[in-house]
Each structure stands twice: as structure tokens, then as C-alpha cells.
Please model this.
Amino acid sequence: MPKRVTAKEVAKALGISTMTVSRALNNRPNVDPKTRQKVLETAQKLGYFPNYIAKSLVLRKTNTIGVVVPEITHSFFPEVVRGIEEISYQSGYDLILSHSAESGIREKSAIETLVSKQVDGLLISTAQTVSDYTIYQQVMRRGIPIVFYDRCVKNIGANCVSIDDEESATLITEHLIQHGYQRIGHISGPSQVLIGQARKQGFIKALQKSNLTVDADLIIEAGFHEKDGYSAMQTLLQLPPGKMPRAVVAVNDPAAFGAMKAIYEHNLRIPEDVAIVGFSDDIRAELMRTPLTTIRQNAYEVGRRAVQKLIDQIENKTSSVEEIIVKGELVIRNSCGCTG
Amino acid sequence: MPKRVTAKEVAKALGISTMTVSRALNNRPNVDPKTRQKVLETAQKLGYFPNYIAKSLVLRKTNTIGVVVPEITHSFFPEVVRGIEEISYQSGYDLILSHSAESGIREKSAIETLVSKQVDGLLISTAQTVSDYTIYQQVMRRGIPIVFYDRCVKNIGANCVSIDDEESATLITEHLIQHGYQRIGHISGPSQVLIGQARKQGFIKALQKSNLTVDADLIIEAGFHEKDGYSAMQTLLQLPPGKMPRAVVAVNDPAAFGAMKAIYEHNLRIPEDVAIVGFSDDIRAELMRTPLTTIRQNAYEVGRRAVQKLIDQIENKTSSVEEIIVKGELVIRNSCGCTG
DNA sequence: TTGTACGCGTTATCAA
DNA sequence: TTGATAACGCGTACAA
Model:
């Protein structure tokens, strides 16, 4: 076992006290430049590394942020993490990454561990099955700030950075309306998931703003995956000719891909027979036979804004509770009917 | 500032010593069941959370693993992280994630911070610009085990888990040879990057095994991006008809995409005029006009094997130094000349 | 400028 | 079964 080099060793080697070593190493003003020089040299020579664990214990600060991610393979989240990482690195914070795997139980246990590890703050995107918010409140009562990102919990006094799902859905639906389509369908997400609800609301709002009738038969509750979009589109395509939608807003890109497959299998053209748009700008969207018009979500920016807010809170620069919305961007390709 | 609940508070509330509280909370055998029960209850009631920082200080163990990732947005790495996370979670370790952004300087500073935070072990995929290995050796001399993953540093006594680039390149090249192609070109990576070298070696080895001549003019040193593949292919397409390759092995999928673009722009067909294969099974590979035959790298497995090895080392279950190779898998689509 | 005493919250050790 | 004491490595507060 290699013996560890502590500040005490460095002090002993120089015949001075550990305090002087500590001061020299932390660039405190009140230390003789010559002493500092010697301390730095011998620290270097002895291979001294400060023990942040000990430091954290006394300072009650770990310079560590806990990040809870519900699904690390979903490409949105690595992007968020990159944004988080960029800002936290600049501010001198490290990240403990926890994966809840969409399980409320794992999320709770992850949060408890992070609190025990004394993180200075928490960045959380809630798992889909979470319904009990007491753990969040407990944590905040301990003085540990939480900023939710992407999937938020409202009304518990925590900050929140999210994509404007509703407004973006309105935006893209209105784009279809501008093409002159009157009968527009919606392949929605599961009704209990917040982002699915928001997008559906945005869809409906766009129709209402243009005084188009909202036909419940044209709104199919499906899911976020390709197969969900495929079967939902099957249902829409079996409607009588007069009822069939001329355009479709899918809850996300994978669902749109599934829907496109169903459309092609019915020997219909996109966008000539049925226009379709997605949501999230999947990397495959522009590679489709007819490139998919969609909404690009700025995951990177969500991450940046969320940590920034958290760090501000940790360092007491701000105490206001706000809901930061990162706008989605309309990515126009051809599936909506646009050309070129 | 909310007052923190420590073991001492719990002890005081019950009129017992902190040691008994500690023992009860850690499920030690030598504590009266009734006492334990009372301790657990009041700990719960008072909202006690153990302070792992203090615990780590005395136990000299943090149950934390440092992970250094060179590029978090490259889809390979989130997959690896997921594998790491799965095993580490099961074993009770948390992950501190650091991003080197392909910079040797940032990597070094990340490692230093992780060591200072007293991680129990390190998982590192080296940044591209790294040439100085002393930091790795320093860390290992302190008794902190390192397992390299994907991008390894050999001959310094560290474990290593990687994809078998060379063998996989041989595999996919031989697949082309079996199609009967004789003149096969290679769009390679930058010569200083290890995985580029290995793939090129594997390519050459396959030709040699089949007694095909290795023509230096058919090996174009390029890069890992689409534009690199595009311009390299331009060069190959400008060779005189008798010299032009009948098939091409690209160093990775993006390079292959670029090459395909160049081929189409020359009004040639894939695979009828030029066959092409890639490497890494990018999500877009199967969506190309002619779906791309490629090698699927099991990033998830790389992560799992790497942490497992690291944890074994941390817990002294093993001390042997080995090089674990995760095999690549040939994904046959149509760009190689296969049909159906 | 430098040093001493003490505390951060926990556990190991030894004694009761 | 339980408790007192010391220690983990460092920084604060005060004294020299």
C-alpha cells in the first residue's frame, strides 16, 4: 500500500506547520513568497494531492452537482449532459451522474445517495413513473437546491428549465395550416405523460386559433415509438375518404417515421397525399425518402441554462423561482409540403 | 439555514452514544434489536441522512468511480456510459463523469480532480492529443486502479477493454473479398490515431491473407468525418478505369456516407459499380438509399466489462493485467453487394 | 507571517 | 451490548 502524502507530510519535510502549507497551497495572501515557493516545490516533489473529501467535510461544500437522467441512451439527454458539463466545468463543479432508468424507485434512491454524498445541488429530470414529490421537498428543505430540466415538477418552489412543447406544437401545426390543410390529425403520446399532453394542447390551440374544428376522431392516442406511430396511422388511414386527415402532426419523430411507413404501405405519397411533421429532430429525420419537417429542441441549451441557474442558487446569486423555457426551432424540410 | 441532523443528534434524542447509532444504522450484528428499532425510527423521524463524506474520510473509500469521456456527444460513449452505469449501480458505486473534450490538458486536470476527490478507481478513454503517460502512472502508483476503455494506453500495466478494430476490419474486408472483388480501396483515418491504424492494418491483413496485392494508391489517408470520406472518394474516383477500386472499406460510417455521396455524384451505382462498407453502425447506416454494410461495435458491453474489471480490482478480487477485447459484429446490408 | 487548538461527521479500537 | 476516545485530512479562529 503506497503511503499517502498529506499536507502534514509536506509540512514535516519543511519543518513548518500544516497551516502554512495549507495557506501556501490555497494562495492565501498572508504567506511569505519564499515559503510559498518552497511549499509548492516540495508538494510537487512528494506528489501531494489535496484531499477534497477532507476539505469538503470542513467547508461543507463538495463542488459537486448531482445529475439524475431518466434515460441516458435517448440522444436528447447526452446533449443536455454536454451542456451541463460545459458550464459546470467552467465554474469548477464536477458531476455525479445517476441514471433512474425511468423508475421512480431508482430515482428516489439515487437522490438519497446524492444527498448523502453532500452534493451542492441537484439537476433532475423526473422518471416517467414518479408521482410522489415528497423526496424533492425534503431535499430542498435541507437547503439543497434543485433545478428540474426537461421534465419538471411544478408548484414545489423549484426552478425548472424546459422545452416549450406546447408552443412548439402550435408553431408546427400552424405551419401546416399555412399550407392550406384543413383536416389535420394528431398522433399523440400516452395521455399521462406531460410532454405528450403539452404537445396535444399546442396542436389543439393552433386549430382553434385558426377556427378549424377539432375532431376527436383525428386525435389518436399512441406512444413515442415507431410502432405506435405506425398503428396510429393505420387507424387514421382507415377513416372514410372525407374524414381522412390531409396532414398529420406526430408527437415525435420516431412516431412520424412509423406513420410514414404506414402511409407508403397504403401507396400514398408524402406530402402530395398526406403531409406529416414530427417533433425532436431525430438524426434520421433528414434522411427519410421525404425529409421530415420537425421541431429542433435545443437540448444543449437546456443543460446550460439549468446548471447556470443551479450554480447561481448554490452561490446565492439568486433566489427567485422561475420557469425557464428554451424555445424550439422549426426545421422545415419537405414532408410538410414545402419544396426545395 | 436548516440545521443538519447528524448521528449525534439521533444519539442525543435517544440518550445513547453515537457509536450505537452508527452500529444500528449499518446493520452491525452487535446491537440489541430493540435499540436498533428505536434508532431507525428516530433517524427516520428526524430526517437523518448519513454523511458519506465523513464516512469516506475515515473509511478511505468513496464508492465512487471517475469516468473520463473524450466526447460525450459521439453516440458510442453514451452507450458505454450506460453499460458502466448499469454494473456500477448494481455494485453500489456512483459515477463522476468528466469530459476531456479530446484535450490532453483537460484530461490531465480532470484526472487530478478525480484523484483529489478520492475516487476508488478510474475509467479512462484517452483524448486524441494525449502523448504524456506519466499522469496515469502517477495515479496507479498511488494505488488507484485504472481501466482504459476503447482507446487504450498499452504497456503501463493498466487493464484495457477495447473493440477489436483490427480483427473487425479484417472481417469486413474479407466479406468484400468473398464477393469476388479484387481491387479494394481503403479510406483510412488520420495515421496518428490508433483506431485508424488498427483498421488499416486489419484491411491490409485481409488482402494479404487472400494473396491480393496491396496497392498504396488505393489507400487514402483521410479522417473520421463525412467530408473526409467525400474528398477521399473523389481521389479514388479520379484514378484511371483500370486502377479504380471495385470496392471500398471506409474507416467509419460517416466517412462511408461522404464516399457514397461522391459515388452518386459520379453517376455510379452502389453496389453495382462500387461496393462500399463502413464501420461503427451509425444509426443512419440502414437508412441510406443503399443500406450500408458495417461493423456493429458493442459499446454497451465495453462499458460493462470495463467497470466490472475495475470493481474487481478495487475490491482486490483480481490483480492480473489483461486486455479484454469485445468483438465487433458484421452487419450485412446491401452496400457490399448482398441482396435481400 | 506563522503556529496551536479545535471541529467537520463518521467509524475503529479497546475497554466496560 | 454499549460507550469513550482517537483518528481520517483539512480549514477556521485565534494567539504568538
User: Anything to note?
Assistant: The longest helix of chain B spans residues 76-91. The CA atoms of residues 235 and 270 of chain B lie 17 Å apart. Chain B touches chain A through 47 residues (CB under 8 Å).
